[in-house]
């Protein structure tokens, strides 16, 4: 089951794919169907994050190849940071590249959405607390990185820089330990990985996190990104793909002065 | 354990817009002169290599938020917690790219935040395991409207542990005063109605053991009192 939340015609709706999904970036799901039966093309609606998002928990350096890419050694415990709600953005939205920066990059990640609240659960029981999965594209502006609570908020907690969607895909039928992740910039593949290479896998992360914080319905864990991050510029279309979860599109735009027409 | 999740946060009395807290609270690291001074010597060395430039923020998520009077549980194997008194700025309207001159216009009011953490000496990586534990952010006792606070930049937070004064922190000693902090934070992110921005704790934070009671007082803001208890108590 794949579900989206979209704004259309003055209201927010749940939506599902209409017709068979084609597994290509150009026409992944050309049409969607609202709960009341209206069928729409995907560009007729405004896509929102596909569920009511609670606490956003993100992992850094959770793929060995990406950690090496950034010249970091392996970690003794997960590198966890939290993100605020202002970072969230839906499918087909735009993300600002700040003026004057040299290196801003996408990060395609498997997002794990919590269903049943989890407190002090073991690895063995962890997956019962997963409602489903979606794709996350969690941007970073490396120019702003500082070594205090790194990755610090100015680099990693920017407005509209965490894209979630397009669909919340029910956990049944998804094998989170073996999913290919790929990112395309203007149609050219730049990033590829597989969740089997996660240093800390999904059940471990739920065990680790729930040992000190209760995970509630709608909390989401962004599990980290593999190697292949590249600089992106205004006008670039970024498409992230994960097996079975769809294609998550996003466009980079330039920063504009306050008060300028868009 | 009395936990306040998003829906329950609304119970903290708030008589001014936005009338309810959002459940998102950002803390600010090293924004009190005493806290910055405490790391000045090591800041020049790895892994830091420099003093921070932008505000260093951390998030206290919804599972941490707790009411006046809620017990704070010490994790198993931890004998002391830090209880860091902070001034909480309650945001009244969406705030982005604020100028310093206009920054306080977005403020609905103020409250007291007891920013609890497991003591940790490194600030290189986010300290989520130390800071984001259930119930580790009592706040209250109410939102005092901005108009009722004569000079928020001169407020003094006094922390008592079992009735003994353990810390006195003046907001006059903030590295970034409130308006400057709001301007610099909203340079890169939006603060939403009901969000709380904690302006930064003094160092060293009082250490608290199980069985002790922490009371934080500030003129015009009231008293926030919470007991610290053994795990599973």
Which topology of chain A does CATH recognise?
Fumarylacetoacetate hydrolase, domain 2
Number of strands of chain B: 13
| H-E order of chain A | EEEEEEHEEEEEHEEHEEEHEEE
By CATH, the architecture of chain A is named: Alpha-Beta Complex
Low-confidence stretches of chain A: none
What does this protein structure show overall?
- The complex is a heterodimer of chains A (262) and B (233).
- Chain A is mostly beta strands.
- Chain A has helices at 64-69, 123-126, 153-156, 202-210; strands at 2-8, 11-17, 31-34, 39-41, 46-48, 56-60, 79-83, 88-89, 93-97, 104-105, 108-114, 130-138, 140-141, 162-170, 180-185, 188-194, 220-222, 237-242, 246-254.
- Chain A contains 4 helices and 19 strands.
- In chain A, the strands form 3 sheets. In chain A, strands 1, 2, 3, 4, 5, 6, 7, 8, 11, 12, 14 and 17 form a 12-stranded mixed sheet that branches.
- The termini of chain A are far apart.
- The relative contact order of chain A is 0.23.
- Chain B has 233 residues and is mostly beta strands.
- Chain B has one domain: Fumarylacetoacetase-like, C-terminal domain (Fumarylacetoacetate hydrolase, domain 2).
- Chain B has helices at 6-9, 33-43, 128-131, 178-185, and strands at residues 25-29, 56-60, 65-66, 72-73, 81-91, 107-117, 137-145, 156-161, 164-170, 196-198, 207-208, 213-218, 222-229.
- Chain B is globular and about 45 Å long.
- The chains are: A mainly beta (262), B mainly beta (233).
- The interface between A and B is large, with 34 and 44 residues.
């Amino acid at each position: 089951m794949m579900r989206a939340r979209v704004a259309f015609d003055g209201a927010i709706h749940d939506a599902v794919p209409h017709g068979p999904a084609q597994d290509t970036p150009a026409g992944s799901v050309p049409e969607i169907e609202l709960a009341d039966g209206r069928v729409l093309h995907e560009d007729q609606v405004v896509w929102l994050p596909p569920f009511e998002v609670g606490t956003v928990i993100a992992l850094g350096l959770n793929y060995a190849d990406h950690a090496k890419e950034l010249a970091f050694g392996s970690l003794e415990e997960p590198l966890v940071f939290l993100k605020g709600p202002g970072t969230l953005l839906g499918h087909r939205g735009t993300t600002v590249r700040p003026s004057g920066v040299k290196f801003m990059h996408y990060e395609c990640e498997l997002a794990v959405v919590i269903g049943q609240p989890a407190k002090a659960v073991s690895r063995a029981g962890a997956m019962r607390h997963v409602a489903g999965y979606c794709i996350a594209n969690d941007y970073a502006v490396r120019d702003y990185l500082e070594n205090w609570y790194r990755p610090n908020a100015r680099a990693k907690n920017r407005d509209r820089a965490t894209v979630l969607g397009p669909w919340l895909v029910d956990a049944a039928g998804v094998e989170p330990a073996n999913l290919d992740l790929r990112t395309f910039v203007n149609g050219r593949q730049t990033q590829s990985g597989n969740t089997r290479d996660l240093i800390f896998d999904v059940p471990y992360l739920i065990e680790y996190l729930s040992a000190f914080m209760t995970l509630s319905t709608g909390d989401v864990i962004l599990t980290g990104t593999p190697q292949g991050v590249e600089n992106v510029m205004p006008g670039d279309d970024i498409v992230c793909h994960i097996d079975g979860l769809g294609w998550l599109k996003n466009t980079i735009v330039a920063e504009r002065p306050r008060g300028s027409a868009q | 354990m009395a936990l306040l999740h998003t829906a329950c946060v609304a119970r903290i009395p708030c008589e001014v817009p936005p009338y309810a807290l959002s459940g998102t609270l950002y803390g600010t690291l090293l924004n009190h002169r005493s806290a910055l001074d405490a790391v000045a010597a090591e800041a020049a060395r790895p892994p830091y290599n420099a003093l921070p430039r932008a505000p260093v923020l951390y998030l206290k998520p919804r599972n941490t938020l707790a009411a006046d009077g809620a017990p704070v549980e010490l994790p198993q194997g931890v004998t002391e917690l830090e209880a860091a008194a902070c001034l909480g700025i309650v945001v009244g309207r969406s705030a982005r790219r604020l100028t310093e001159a206009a920054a306080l216009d977005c403020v609905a009011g103020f409250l007291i935040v007891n920013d609890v953490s497991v003591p940790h000496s490194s600030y290189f990586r986010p300290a989520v395991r130390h800071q984001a534990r259930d119930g580790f952010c009592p706040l209250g006792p109410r939102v005092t409207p901005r108009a009722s606070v004569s000079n928020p930049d001169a407020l003094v937070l006094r922390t008592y542990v079992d009735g003994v004064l353990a810390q006195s922190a003046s907001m006059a000693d903030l590295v970034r005063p409130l308006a400057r902090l709001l301007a610099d934070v909203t340079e890169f992110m939006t603060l939403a109605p009901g969000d709380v921005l904690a302006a930064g704790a003094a160092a060293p934070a009082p250490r608290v053991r199980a069985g002790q009671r922490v009371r934080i007082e500030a003129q015009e803001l009231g008293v926030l009192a919470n007991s610290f208890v053994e795990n599973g108590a």
